[in-house]
Amino acid sequence: QSTWGCLHQLNIRETAMLKPAEEASVNVAQLLHDMTSNEGWRICRDDRDLKVLHRHSPPSPIHGFRFHASFDTELIHLVSLGRELDLLPTWNKYVIVSGVLRYPNPMEICGFGQLWLPWPLENRNVCGHGYLYDLLDENGQVIILVKQLDETVTHPAFSHGVPVKLQLSGITLEPVLEKNESGETIRRVKAVAMMNLDPLAAHVPDFLIDFVVKVVAPWQLQKIRSMLMSLDSRDSPFRQRISENPDTYQAIADRVTNYLQDKNQQIN
Fold this sequence. Notes:
By secondary structure, the protein is of the alpha+beta class. It has helices at residues 21-36, 75-83, 136-139, 206-230, 237-244, 249-267, and strands spanning 8-9, 41-46, 51-56, 63-71, 95-102, 108-115, 124-135, 141-148, 162-163, 165-166, 169-179, 185-198.
């Protein structure tokens, strides 16, 4: 049985996958290839904190963006920022509205969002189905795979804006133990996020690519870091959601802790 044939959903209980294992393994294999390959990607920014790549191969209408960054935090905290979709507009000024349509199981989510674009472009509407997979034993990562969700959204904001066609996208989260500047061992997460989509535009202007690379990406990085710091507060809505959903967050936290402990023992 291949590594991908062993792919399973991360869950404290044995939750059956909604898609055949073969289909899921093919999608994850393709996702991981696109996230590690340099083929077709152009490096637009590469500094100490952030790496941004863009991909577009005419005449294909698909544009891809890939972002690399590291965070000194618990892995579940990063997961919460994406999973609690209804809270996204409270901290991300580039998301006009967003919401959860349903949670098929604790490790899946169906949701929507409207992304702000600068004038004269219209906002873009996105619907997606996210799956969370455990590949810690295979390659040391937790994978969030996102696919297009073809579903009608009745939110008033979706009465305008342009729907986009989301292609295979996702996030890889690699939990590691590393030394900080003080020599203390801390938990760090190496993250890569990739979005591939057809913006349904006859032409995507260069200024929009530059806007994403030079303005949106660094702002998002700093905002995510500030949001992660705010999770220490008892008033944090994300902290409250984490405590209210142990089937998701505690299951992930326990799995990551066990993985890091086993890995640390192997090193020592």
